[in-house]
């Protein structure tokens, strides 16, 4: 019986051996074949003197990376590389020959030999297809960057089977680029930009890697989901990366921190498109790249600093401001020499001013704080158009100049301080008043301003001071009004001049509260000025600090001449009046001492209310009893005597004629219309003797 059992066991074992089943303990060695290196290739195991391949299936469900880790340790690689299973080894390393081992190893990863992974028997079949032979890699993937702008950028190439080959750009993105930069040791740049479409030129050789799908944290591209082996890609779809800061410079600006933005890409310097997406966040990142961190930085579109050459490399730039390089911002694909992916032209090139300071000055003003506003641009000074200009813009400009904006400050349109030359740098300036520089304001900037004219150059007066003087008067508060303009004193036309305007003029003379009997009139012949008539049609509301804050016509209407120069009396002294050719002291022709000489008044619209005021000025008791006479009732004045006024339009309550609204220096009147008054009707002169 014992002999029979022993014989049966021997027979069964012999049958099992013939069928190809053997115990794990009979595996002796492992090797890698077809990979042109000791650490990559088709995995083969030796048993019973025969080298067999391993069945892996396309999904790697039979032989996994953790199994490959044990195989690599068995091959002597320890933990030196990334243990990785190629599911399509026949495409990469060729098909094996001989038998195929069909077994799920289910290693834990800490074994030193595949024999230790499973104690169950392994099935070896000489007839199984080698279509799913397992290939593994036990060494780090070798990568390099070729034809880049810097050593840290270029076309991505992987060393495989003794040659360098490109990676297909299908699905290639910034996460893949980040993983590749990690592999290359570029961890600290903060930049990982993916490029597609053979951005850095076309490579050579087979393309064995496609559909890369990394998370960005991997340290070897084999740790990413990817397809290794044959694919339909060609070298027009080579992938590239930039792991370095983008080379950047500013060109044609007035300072080292301003100018047209240019970046080096594809071996050439190119520009950035200033489309509608370009904003302060993009400016922040660009200036950060240049090492400038000013919160006041601003940018310009439309080739403000001139048009560049070469490619418009980046368009639709969309940074959020946190990036350290524009390569990390969203944008359209970057273009390279010879490509036409961007529809943008150099007329849209962007520029930045990273310090946020515009060169500015005031020219041809009446004081240090006034003048035509000029901006330094393109190597010379240009101007600002007055279109849309308002007090918010004035506030910012005064602040830029180091002057304080106050209620006295004002601006002047229409080339008030003379027409500038060169470019009109900006128009439609629309500041909100809080900006530190007009570059931060919304505006239309050069070269979009080419159609503007220097006749609209804007000027400002930050201190509100207009030098003023009174000439040909009896005292410091009486005389012809002249104000400084364009380096010379000129007059004010009396057209539309009224008491509110008088109030402002007297305030400019230092008289804040003018008396009720202050008055004005057109200058007499001998008191007329010379030179420019600076303004006409003043329309003050009476609260302004100077006529510069009033509405008006600057320069004056051409219909104004010096016979209409404004003459004022701010001290309220009553006019000098006298009665001439009457029968007694309280009757006679009315004559007024005007601008240094005696003259008469025309009787147009003359009435009793006017006579009452005249008698009040002459200090007669009960002036309300006055009687008015016209048509030279008391004789005509001398033909050489000037007719000073007509149409007095008094209401009877005034204390001087300046408070009425007379027409000064009338035309069409003759001395046959001289007025007269009786200030005490019914009175008799005292008879002496």
Provide the CATH top-level class of the largest domain: Alpha Beta
- Tell me the CATH superfamily of the largest domain: SRCR-like domain
CATH architecture of the largest domain: Roll
Say what the CATH topology of the largest domain is. Answer: Mac-2 Binding Protein
Distance between the termini: 194 Å
Q: In angstroms, what is the radius of gyration?
A: 49 Å
Give me the number of helical elements.
8
- Strand count: 42
Net shape? rod-shaped
Low-pLDDT segments, ≥5 res:
1-25
Strand content: 25-35%
Structural class: alpha+beta
Q: How would you sum up the major sheet?
A: 8 strands, mixed
Kindly state the mean pLDDT as a whole number?
Answer: 87
Strand-helix topology:
Elements: H1 2-19, E1 21-22, E2 27-37, E3 40-47, E4 50-54, H2 65-74, E5 84-86, H3 89-93, E6 100-102, E7 122-125, E8 135-137, E9 142-146, E10 153-160, E11 163-166, H4 174-183, E12 193-195, E13 209-213, E14 225-228, E15 240-242, E16 248-252, E17 258-265, E18 268-272, H5 280-289, E19 298-300, E20 312-314, E21 351-353, E22 360-364, E23 370-377, E24 380-384, H6 391-400, E25 410-412, E26 424-430, E27 442-445, E28 459-461, E29 468-471, E30 478-485, E31 488-492, H7 499-508, E32 519-522, E33 533-539, E34 551-553, E35 566-569, E36 576-580, E37 587-594, E38 597-601, H8 608-617, E39 627-629, E40 642-646, E41 663-664, E42 676-678
Parallel strand pairs: 4-6, 18-20, 24-26, 31-33, 38-40
Antiparallel strand pairs: 1-7, 2-3, 3-4, 3-8, 5-8, 6-7, 9-10, 10-11, 10-15, 12-15, 13-14, 16-17, 17-18, 17-21, 19-21, 22-23, 23-24, 23-28, 25-28, 26-27, 29-30, 30-31, 30-35, 32-35, 33-34, 36-37, 37-38, 37-42, 39-42, 40-41
């Amino acid at each position: 019986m014992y002999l029979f059992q022993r014989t049966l066991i021997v027979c069964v074992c012999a049958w099992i051996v013939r069928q190809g089943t053997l115990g794990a303990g009979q595996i002796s060695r492992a090797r890698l074949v077809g990979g042109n290196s000791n650490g990559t290739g088709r995995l083969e195991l030796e048993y019973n003197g025969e080298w067999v391949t391993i069945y892996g299936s396309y999904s790697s469900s039979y032989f996994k990376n953790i199994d490959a880790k044990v195989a690599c340790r068995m091959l002597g690689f320890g933990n030196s590389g990334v243990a990785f299973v190629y599911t399509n080894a026949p495409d990469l390393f060729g098909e094996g020959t001989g038998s195929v081992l069909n077994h799920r190893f289910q290693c834990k990863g800490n074994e030193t030999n595949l024999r230790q992974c499973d104690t169950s028997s392994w099935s070896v079949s000489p007839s199984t297809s080698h279509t799913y032979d397992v290939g593994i890699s036990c060494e780090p993937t070798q990568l390099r960057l070729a034809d880049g702008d810097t050593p840290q950028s270029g076309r991505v190439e992987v060393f495989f089977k003794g040659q360098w080959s490109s990676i297909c750009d299908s699905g290639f993105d910034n996460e893949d680029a980040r993983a590749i930069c990690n592999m290359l040791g570029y961890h600290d740049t903060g930049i990982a930009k993916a490029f597609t479409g053979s951005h850095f030129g076309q490579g050579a050789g087979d393309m064995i890697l496609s559909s890369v799908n990394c998370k960005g944290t991997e340290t070897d591209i084999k740790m990413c989901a990817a397809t290794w082996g044959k694919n339909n890609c060609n070298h027009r779809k080579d992938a590239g990366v930039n792991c370095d800061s983008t080379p950047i410079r500013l060109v044609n600006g007035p300072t080292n921190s301003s100018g047209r933005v240019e970046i080096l890409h594809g071996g050439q310097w190119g520009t950035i498109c200033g489309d509608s997406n370009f904003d302060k966040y993009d400016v922040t990142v660009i200036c950060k790249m240049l090492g400038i961190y000013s919160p006041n930085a601003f940018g310009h579109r439309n080739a403000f600093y001139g048009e560049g050459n070469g490619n418009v490399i980046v368009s639709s730039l969309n940074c959020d401001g946190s990036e350290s390089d524009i390569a990390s911002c969203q944008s359209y694909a970057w273009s390279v020499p010879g490509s036409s992916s961007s529809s943008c032209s150099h007329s849209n090139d962007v520029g930045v001013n990273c310090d946020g300071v515009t060169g500015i000055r005031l020219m041809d003003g009446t004081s240090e704080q006034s003048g035509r506003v000029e901006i330094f641009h393109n190597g010379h000074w240009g101007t600002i158009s007055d279109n849309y200009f308002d007090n918010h813009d004035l506030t910012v400009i005064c602040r830029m100049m180091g002057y304080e904006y106050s209620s006295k400050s004002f601006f002047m349109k229409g080339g008030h301080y003379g027409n500038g030359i060169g470019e009109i740098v900006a128009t439609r300036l629309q500041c909100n008043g809080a900006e530190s520089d007009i570059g931060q304001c919304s505006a239309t900037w050069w070269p979009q301003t080419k159609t503007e004219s220097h006749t609209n150059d804007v000027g400002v007066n930050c201190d509100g001071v207009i030098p003023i003087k009174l000439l040909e008067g009896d005292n410091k508060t009486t005389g012809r009004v002249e104000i400084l303009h364009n380096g010379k004193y000129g007059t004010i036309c009396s057209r539309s001049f009224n008491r509110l305007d008088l109030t402002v003029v007297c305030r400019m003379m230092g008289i804040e509260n003018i008396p009720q009997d202050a008055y004005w009139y057109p200058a007499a012949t001998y008191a007329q000025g010379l030179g420019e008539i600076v303004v006409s049609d003043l329309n003050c509301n009476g609260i302004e600090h100077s006529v510069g804050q009033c509405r008006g016509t600057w320069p004056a209407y051409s219909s104004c001449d010096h016979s209409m120069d404004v003459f004022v009396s701010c001290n309220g002294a009553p006019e000098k009046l006298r009665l001439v050719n009457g029968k007694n002291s309280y009757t006679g022709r009315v004559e007024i001492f005007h601008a240094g000489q005696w003259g008469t008044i025309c009787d147009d619209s003359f009435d009793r209310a006017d006579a009452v005021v005249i008698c009040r000025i002459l200090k007669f008791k009960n002036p309300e009893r006055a009687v008015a006479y016209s048509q030279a009732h008391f004789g005509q004045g001398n033909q050489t005597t000037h007719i000073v006024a007509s149409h007095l339009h008094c209401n009877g309550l005034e204390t001087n004629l300046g408070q009425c609204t007379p027409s000064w220096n009338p035309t069409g009147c003759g001395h046959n219309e001289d007025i007269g008054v009786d200030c005490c009707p019914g009175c008799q002169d005292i008879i002496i003797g």
